[in-house]
Amino acid sequence: MEKVRIGVVGCGYWGPNLIRNFIALNDAEVVIVIDKEQDRLNHIKSLYPNVHVGVNHFDLFNYDLDAAVVATPPASHYEIALDCLDNGLHTFVEKPITLNSLDCKRLVDLAYKKKLTLMVGHTFEYNPAVRKVKEIIDNGDLGDIYYVDAVRVNLGLFSPDLNVVWDLAPHDISILHFLLDQDPVSVQAVGEANIFSGKNDLAYLHLQFPDKITAHLHISWLDPRKVRRITVVGSQKMLVYDDIENMEKIRIYDKGVEKPPYTNTFAEFQCSYRYGDVIIPNIQFTEPLKIECQHFVDCILDDSIKPISSGEQGLLVVQTLEAAERSMKNGGQRHFINEDELDISTMS
Amino acid sequence: MEKVRIGVVGCGYWGPNLIRNFIALNDAEVVIVIDKEQDRLNHIKSLYPNVHVGVNHFDLFNYDLDAAVVATPPASHYEIALDCLDNGLHTFVEKPITLNSLDCKRLVDLAYKKKLTLMVGHTFEYNPAVRKVKEIIDNGDLGDIYYVDAVRVNLGLFSPDLNVVWDLAPHDISILHFLLDQDPVSVQAVGEANIFSGKNDLAYLHLQFPDKITAHLHISWLDPRKVRRITVVGSQKMLVYDDIENMEKIRIYDKGVEKPPYTNTFAEFQCSYRYGDVIIPNIQFTEPLKIECQHFVDCILDDSIKPISSGEQGLLVVQTLEAAERSMKNGGQRHFINEDELDISTMS
Amino acid sequence: MEKVRIGVVGCGYWGPNLIRNFIALNDAEVVIVIDKEQDRLNHIKSLYPNVHVGVNHFDLFNYDLDAAVVATPPASHYEIALDCLDNGLHTFVEKPITLNSLDCKRLVDLAYKKKLTLMVGHTFEYNPAVRKVKEIIDNGDLGDIYYVDAVRVNLGLFSPDLNVVWDLAPHDISILHFLLDQDPVSVQAVGEANIFSGKNDLAYLHLQFPDKITAHLHISWLDPRKVRRITVVGSQKMLVYDDIENMEKIRIYDKGVEKPPYTNTFAEFQCSYRYGDVIIPNIQFTEPLKIECQHFVDCILDDSIKPISSGEQGLLVVQTLEAAERSMKNGGQRHFINEDELDISTMS
Amino acid sequence: MEKVRIGVVGCGYWGPNLIRNFIALNDAEVVIVIDKEQDRLNHIKSLYPNVHVGVNHFDLFNYDLDAAVVATPPASHYEIALDCLDNGLHTFVEKPITLNSLDCKRLVDLAYKKKLTLMVGHTFEYNPAVRKVKEIIDNGDLGDIYYVDAVRVNLGLFSPDLNVVWDLAPHDISILHFLLDQDPVSVQAVGEANIFSGKNDLAYLHLQFPDKITAHLHISWLDPRKVRRITVVGSQKMLVYDDIENMEKIRIYDKGVEKPPYTNTFAEFQCSYRYGDVIIPNIQFTEPLKIECQHFVDCILDDSIKPISSGEQGLLVVQTLEAAERSMKNGGQRHFINEDELDISTMS
Questions:
Q1: Which residue of C has its CA nearest to A253?
Q2: In a domain, A52, yes or no
Q3: What CATH code is carried by the domain that includes residue A63?
Q4: In a 3-state reduction of DSSP, which class is residue A259?
């Protein structure tokens, strides 16, 4: 079998992890790595002496590549990904895919026209623990889902071209889409800029989904503890997924409340409570990034496979973030996510 | 010294704890206990054979009492407290003091006119751990306070005459007032009624205080874990108070972010981070309820002492809850708390 | 039904808990309480005005009692319990029942001759969590038991007439007897006296039971953490019982090692490992002391009921502690527990 | 500067970590890797195409090397290390350095004669958390050390040529030597072979050091939880080092007991207790293996630097393990560690 020939743009914080994983795949080869910083390229060279390097993403197009991986700061995603698709490369872009939905729409359209794979790096969709949560939900073990509460906080590095919502919320929004098989309808959001005026470092988002399901996100760069926790509450059972835990990432609580079928009078008001066992399922762990990289290669090698974290999914995340921004500017009022859709459809 | 003679109305869930603590005080005496349920009265009789019992709160007024303690379901607080004050008794009312601010205003006015102590059972203001948090804040150890995040969730017993906000949020609102020495200005709130239509079992409140401090409350009766945690983030240090912990209730994190004094260009954008030690201060524990009961008795015996959790504080909590209700009905829009103040001042 | 009339000797640290529980029973009555300290008697009087008090245990015999409860310092257990049995009272003695096995043997013999109930306060045998562990073991869920590891440490109050082994190990030895339905055969022990010369504040005991089961106890008054944890390892599953946990006291690990049926050569050496789910069973909690007190009363009212924590069990614990003391004095050598039995049989 | 040219023997479980770290050093170069398994060599080749490979450790001597790293199964350590030293190579051997002290003594003697560095892979001596613990002890913060309690248990992979004591206890024994700057004097040990007859999978070791300090090790391959915890109890403070914790590895408890200067009578018996704050010091983390590898290279490049984990330290660990084995065979009796010393001195 021919190996998929890959060029990676950006080897700062996250890029080296992508490079390491693509190199370890049997059916992929990292041909060239691009970065503006020479010392980062030197570091890559010392680890992988046979990889070519370059300082400009146009250097990619001098090699006979099949695909590009874009792991640069988000502000440059759109321009680089556009050039890659334009030059006929299947393209993987780190999250958030772009900084506005219009740009993202153009990438999706271009990939569609050129029949190229466009994939976004929503890593958690490839995380065995998240997949186990989805399996538990899909089995019906939790009953009907009432709501999801997600907390993703730590003392985080402020990034110059993102606020905390664009940095951290893509993870939760993509996880929610993956778990619920639904897109959010509306957002209410509050954001605080405690350190730099105008740059939110703390935010709370409340999402409404079809079927009365809601989700609440607590996002912060300014918290003493590192927390990555998602609580899923259903009519039968409840579940907590804690990604910080090494061994016991998921707990299924056999707890619930059942309302009586009907109540004639207020005096009859009562529920029955169930307090049962807690189960911590064993999860066979594999590095999510490895699964993600393999999936990108699989999509390239086999036309019939579509990326789970597709460009369209990236677009949904960006549209949700935009609606959250609008809500924050309007005192937390409810904003619909498809307002964007309308704008885009008239513009494109 | 004469003992303060007390009558207790309501000995269901919380009443017996109040009775036990008042009986244990040297300068108080529980003369009579009132409850509609005979088996509860029998239980009290078996524990304290010398206490009188009755089924109607008017029975209180046949005994020569100094004070009344009202621990009945909240819907009856107003009527009973009004009668007690009317009959010249110093009155302690469990939280929430009333179910609307107008009623509460009337109690406050009546107590003022009659020169009687009116106190509300905001227990956490008498909790040694909360007082330690206040001491740490007041010392300036945390620097300027940026925000507070509070979580108070569990699989809770639905109560027929309250929703989750009125049941749980009074604790956090009174703690916030106590810690910050400030009243909230506005609220944005979302609430979900997952089990009973129209009865919120999950809510998120976002409060704004003067000086740009904000607070966020996560309140739920429908969560698999029991959490009572308050995070206080300051410009110098950060603190987590976890009331579920037996021994290590408070953790002070020597962590922080400092923004540079000014930035000429975007390229200069940067902050300095501090990751230091964690300190878990030793706290000498006393039952908060004991301190609270003694404080009520002290206020009665000494005119110069005013209750920390006064009727006015109870009013503030009720006004905040009302503003939260209005916000929930308006899609999470920001509502000001002193809208009520205006209403009340014109009405009373 | 007549109520069992009880006198309690000793109301210092633990006595008030026994008094409170016996008073709350429907078929028992605390008639008189004895203590040398007048302020403790005053405290009891303030709580229970109808109870008589006295300063000498002989005062018991002036009341028409059925039973005595001995909760004095251990050094006085033997003398008081002997007098109580001699005067025809069913007798409950706190642990350790006596400070040497000869005394204990005499109490057991006297109770036998007089057909009186003699019971020792091994509270954990009445603890719902311990009983759940026994149920799990008896169901065969763990397979064959390999070994038990127990840790019972904290920064403990040194007591003037006991060392740490006599203070804390009775709990674990009685739990082991209860769980395994077996008596230990031998002990190897090391003890350290870090603070007071000659008074152990740290000890490790290794017990051998029939059927190759072993148990190891880590006992300390000089540890920064409070730990009460028992690990039971079986051929099928493993279990951890952590009494400090509020809600999740027992965890059953579906983990195990299976050795191959036989191995011809060293090269074939291999085992199969099983890593499965963890289950935290829900436990309905009742105060163990309440169950224990009711059991004592039941044994008095119904001749056919024998105490679970009988005088004979108390004797076994004391004999095990004596063997541990001998081992400590002999450099940790293995000592058999029935060496005592032989001594006693010749003496009595 | 010339790079130290290294050959690595063994790239199974641990070898690849050593290779990765030596390659990343500026002043070292991995020239050749040896393993009996071709697929492991292929794996190394795919990662580092420029490294030579071989199947027999004699292949090392065909390259112009400065040093050898031995990471094979322990049974082959002695023979391979002997050949390496004989051929003039500085030699690093994984722990346990050999399976008996006589072999180890010969390696130490040979390295001494040939003026070569002999170092053993006691990784924890290069662990920033262990070094922080040593700093705290050396500062006198804990006061006089009373005792150390160490727990190192998990569901471990049984190894064909070691029992659990030889596999896990070297870590704790080397840590104890490092922390206390003392060698243990005697051992009392019990070991259980629950799965394979004759092969201990559970052991408890009690070590005595000069100055009345003691240490107790709990070692197991048959425990449901993974624990790596060391408690150090001093006269002033107490410390717990938990290597499983990601961020909070060390906790210093300001807790202690002080005995009175003297007691005239038994009635005066009393201590004073101190319950103070807990401090979790911030630790700057670096991979211990990186520090260890650099240290080996430094010892080679600079004659004046002696390895912290020297061959002599390896010998001490092996002698302690041998004394523990003797104690286990003699019912847990106390065995002195220098019994070996005597044997060796007469033999060599």
A1: C280
A2: yes
A3: 3.40.50.720
A4: coil
Chains that touch B (3 or more CB pairs under 8 A): A, C, D
pLDDT digits 0-9 by tens, C256-273: 887 766 544 444 456 778
What is the pLDDT tens value at each position of chain A, 348 positions in all? 589 999 999 998 899 999 999 998 999 999 999 999 999 999 898 888 889 999 999 999 999 999 999 999 999 999 999 999 999 999 999 999 999 999 999 999 999 999 999 999 999 999 999 999 999 999 999 999 999 999 999 998 777 778 999 999 999 999 999 999 999 999 999 999 999 888 999 999 999 999 899 999 999 999 999 999 999 999 999 999 999 998 899 999 999 887 766 544 444 456 678 899 999 999 988 999 999 999 999 999 999 999 999 999 999 999 999 999 999 999 889 999 976 444 433 333
Give yes or no for a contact between A23 and A32, defined as CB atoms under 8 angstroms apart. no
Q: Chain B contacts of C247, Cβ < 8 Å? A: 226
What is the tens place of the pLDDT at every residue in B178-204? 999 999 999 999 999 999 888 999 999
pLDDT at C260: 65
Within-domain flag for B340: no
D330 part of a folded domain? no
Q: Which of B185, B188, B278 to mutate to test the interface with A (most CBs of A within 10 A)?
A: B188
Q: How far lies D278's CA from each of B255, C244, D228, D255, D257, in Å?
A: 17, 19, 20, 9, 16
C195 touches chain D (CB under 8 A): yes
Question: How close C114 comes to chain D (CA, Å)?
Answer: 37
Whether D139 and D116 share a structural domain: no
Of B82, B95, B99, residue with least CA distance to B161: B99
Distance (Å) from the C-alpha of residue D151 to the closest C-alpha of chain B?
A: 23
D113 and D131 fall within a common domain: no
A96: cis peptide before it, omega within 30°?
yes
C26 touching chain B per CB within 8 A: no
Q: Which of residues 247-276 of C touch B (CB under 8 A)?
A: 247
Nearest to A277 among C275, C276, C280 (CB): C280
Residue with tokens 């009856």: B76
Q: Given strand A90-93, what is the order of strands in its sheet? A: A52-54, A28-34, A4-9, A67-70, A90-93, A118-120
- At D340, list the tokens: 């070996």
Residues 6+ apart with CB under 8 A from B317: B95, B96, B97, B120, B122, B170, B173, B174, B177
Mean pLDDT of C131-142: 98
Residue with tokens 């993974």: D226
Residues B81 and B179 in one domain: no
Determine contact, residues A70/A84, Cβ cutoff 8 Å.
yes
**Burial zone of A10 (CB within 10 Å; 0-12 exposed, 13-18 middle, 19+ buried):** buried
Domain assignment present for residue B338? The answer is no
Mutation pick from C136, C282, C283, C284 vs chain A, by most beta carbons of A within 10 Å, is: C282
* A80 in the same domain as A98: yes
What would the two tokens of residue D128 be? 């920033």
State whether C140 and C164 are in the same domain. Answer: yes
Q: Clarify whether residues B147 and B179 are in a common domain.
A: yes
Do D80 and D158 belong to one domain? Answer: no
B234 phi-psi bin (left φ>0, alpha ψ -120 to 50, beta other): beta
CATH number of domain containing D144: 3.30.360.10
pTM reported for the whole predicted model: 0.93
The CA-based dihedral angle spanning residues B65, B69, B74, B80, taken in that order and rounded to the nearest 10 degrees: 10
Q: Give the dihedral of Cα atoms D258, D260, D265, D269; nearest 10 deg.
A: -20
What domain range is D57 assigned to? 4-122+288-307
Give yes or no for a contact between D224 and C238, defined as CB atoms under 8 angstroms apart: yes
Residues D26 and D141 in one domain: no
Number of structural domains in chain D: 2
